[in-house]
């Protein structure tokens, strides 16, 4: 029978652990070398710091230890939980530092039995660890940290993990698990995969047509289906939708679904509104922390409110953790994103109305896939009656889908076949 430490004791445990450890070493000094070694071996680990960051799609937990911890990971169903088993460990950080958030609704930790401890992560939905490893802290003598990256998954995948695991075979102290892709590595499977993202959905209706009052979420879904259908006609290409019906997805869920689908490209479709009703035409956006202009900044701020409008806003975590989650490979993919955006603009020219300076940049959260070239296409403005009429026209929709598919084909030939 194992017992968890009460949260009220968490703040004093570090001092207790240090006292106990000091006592062990004092006693060891009076013992024979063999006895001293045995006493030292019994010294519990000290988890002296913890932090957690993330959202409803990806969450990272980091625990700092005074010595290198061995650990094992197991999954438990009904309800979904992730269990981390450790050697004897004193948890000496404030309980608030590991308060549940993101994918986890409850986090418990403490002594399981003599010589062992356990962390139990109760999830809000099926999850899996895509990374679980021990790293030595950069500063010499500052111990080690256990890094756990959790990611949303399907109920079927979670059930498969539970059925395959063997409790008698713990993971090594460094375990790189499935890196988040459920499909084959896109660089080696020979299939060029595109995630087509219909903006908004569910409770988040997006913008509304000035004349017909048509919600943006319906327009983007119709365009996404048309684009995916055309992309799938191309040999060696597979396109999939992040949402296939009127479902709400958080911005992070959209990014995660693209990664889990092993996407080589991410294209998000939108049709916003502006106060200036005379402005019309398509725009292509790529990610930048500094917006290219005021209009881009305003549109990005409005699109980034999607989670809050649906009640899914998650407080930001510590910057050093959040940066790891969001920006692992953004620089590498940014040049490809710009190349794709330029291709789309060229494909639209002379066929589809474009605004002035049609390639713009802003801090759209949905474009922050860390390892996938990503663009956001504003198909037009529902605040402009002319654009609204076109956005509702099936023939014009097909024309835009053809132009986008053509842009992707040229991008693919230049960057994949051409080795660019």
Q: What does this entry look like structurally?
A:
With 420 residues, the chain is an alpha/beta fold. The chain folds into 2 domains: 7-175, Immunoglobulin-like (Sandwich); 192-417, Aminopeptidase, CATH 3.40.630. Helices cover 33% and strands 26% of the residues. It contains 11 helices and 16 strands. A 6-stranded mixed beta sheet has the order 5-1-2-9-8-10. It is elongated, with a radius of gyration of 25 Å. The termini are far apart. Mean pLDDT is 82; it is low at 1-40, 168-188 and 313-326.
Summarize the structure.
This protein is α/β, with parallel strands linked by helices and 420 residues long.
Uncertain residue segments: 1-40, 168-188, 313-326
User: Which superfamily, in CATH terms, is the homologous superfamily of the largest domain?
Assistant: Zn-dependent exopeptidases
Q: Please tell me how large the radius of gyration is.
A: 25 Å
Percent in strands: 25-35%
The number of domains: 2
- Strand order across the largest sheet: 5-1-2-9-8-10
Helix content: 25-40%
Q: H/E element string?
A: HHEEEEEEEEEHEEHEHEEHHHHEEHH
Report the count of strand segments.
16
By DSSP (H or I, 4+ residues per run), the number of helices equals 11
CATH architecture of the largest domain: 3-Layer(aba) Sandwich
Question: What's the average pLDDT?
Answer: 82
Distance between the termini: 60 Å
Shape descriptor reads: elongated
* Helical/strand content category: alpha/beta
Q: Briefly, what CATH class of the largest domain? A: Alpha Beta
Looking at CATH, which topology of the largest domain would you report? Aminopeptidase
Largest sheet: 6 strands, mixed
